[in-house]
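Replying to the earlier thread about multi-chain prediction with a worked example.

Input:
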Amino acid sequence: MINVENLSKNYGHIKAVKSISFEIGDGEIVGFLGPNGAGKSTTLKVLTGFLAPTAGSVFINGMNIIEEEQEIQKSIGYLPELNPLYTEMIVYDYLQFIASVRNLKGKQFSQSLGRVIEQCGLKGVLHRHIGNCSKGYKQRIGLAASMIHDPKILILDEPVSGLDPNQIVEIRELIKGLGKEKLVLISSHILQEIQATVDRIIIINKGKIVADGTSENLISNAQGKTTLSMEIANATKESVEEMKAVIPSVNLVSFSDAGDSSKVHLEYPLENDPRKDIFTYGVEKGWVILEMATTKSNLEDIFRNLTVTEVADA
Amino acid sequence: MHNVRAIYLKELRSYFNSPMAYIFLVVFAVVNGYFFTNTFFLINQSNMRALFNITPLVYLFFIPAISMSLVARERNLGTIELINTLPIKIHEFVIGKYLASVTLIVAGLAITLVHFFTLMKVGTNIDYGAAICGYFGLALVGAVYASAGTFASSVTDNQVVSFIIAVFIVIVFWLLDKMLIFVPSGLAGLIQFMSVDYHFTNLSRGVIDTRNLIYFGSVIGFFLFLTHRLIEIRKWK
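Result:
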């Protein structure tokens, strides 16, 4: 369990993280989302004990990160941003080094090694120099090293950046599988990379948390409305405008005549779906409905809105 | 303790997985061998003086070259973040790294034992005690220089800069003894005590004095302590 209270981190006079608070429970997969320079990596570096907080407190499994750093680090697996590795080492030697620091010896070591080799698909590169491995393999080596001791908490800083789409899918599946029993915290500046994987998203911008919740929650909170676009033949503008009187929850956004048919954009609140009523109303008015589609505002728009407006405010 | 061992083994591996260690060992042996054999037969004395005079000089450039990468490279690669987020204490990291560099130096010295065997073959009336003490002293001088190099390596993340800083520190330690005539007599004793050469000369004569050992130990401890602080301080920046 991770508990962050009013955490701030300054680099000199630059305030990278400004008093953020959040809590993550066991078994949750959380995405830490924000544009570059938002303070994601800084926060993760404080959580893992690489940097000390300027103010505020971090408790992990009930222990304070400053007082019991070593104990906490034993239960965390961390993949830093840009995945630093000893390029001159052989993959096996590197994993052995990490395992020896994690105090895995003998049978325990061979079991853990076998597990991460299988999970991360490292069989083919085990005796290669890390520097000669492809970017995808390097990323997996980093992941394998962070999971070799089967940590309760896994913190991955941009684990899929720079990977090709197939590799992204693979790593996503891997993380999803892990999240069943572990607390996983993944950061990213690209929404699609993590949207499919995580249960909950924390959006951070300019060192502050601007949104926190499941992706459905974030969408309904930010927008609260669904847009319905229709293409109708035989509709007059008046008949569309009069619909408001019959179905009060629907608002007309736009109406444009395109010769044979007209394009209509409607809006209604998320909680009640008036599409059946609209259809019945249309039949009464003699509409020929050619197309009717809801467009849920996607998370990406929300992400952009949240992070861009904040910039404008600043 | 298992962390010191893990870091130590990793560091040794990375020395021997790259050309670094081999180049060091070969060139170190060649340079020492050249200067030793050059004067050994000329002086025509049954001792290792020729080697003991030249090795501290060779150290001045070779040890900074070994130690420059110790911490600077970890910073440069970003792997220091891995180390600092693993359950490894900073002193375990520093000691493991430092011991690896000392091991490489001792391995270099071990190769020069060849000259000792030459001496045993051709020499007469050899003072074995002095030779053994001299080797012990050389190892200690190497250990002191390596600690200064470790410190220099933690000052910056640029290996070239760390090399230059290390050479500077090491030369100052080596020169102190040679500058005694320029300093006021009141300070001379102190400066002499600070110099590495003074303590090494005692050892190479075959005298093991605790004063010398305490000197070597405290200089090593001082530099490693500074290294520890320099690494720790970055966390709070």
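Chain B has eleven helices and no strands.

Feel free to reuse this layout for your own posts.
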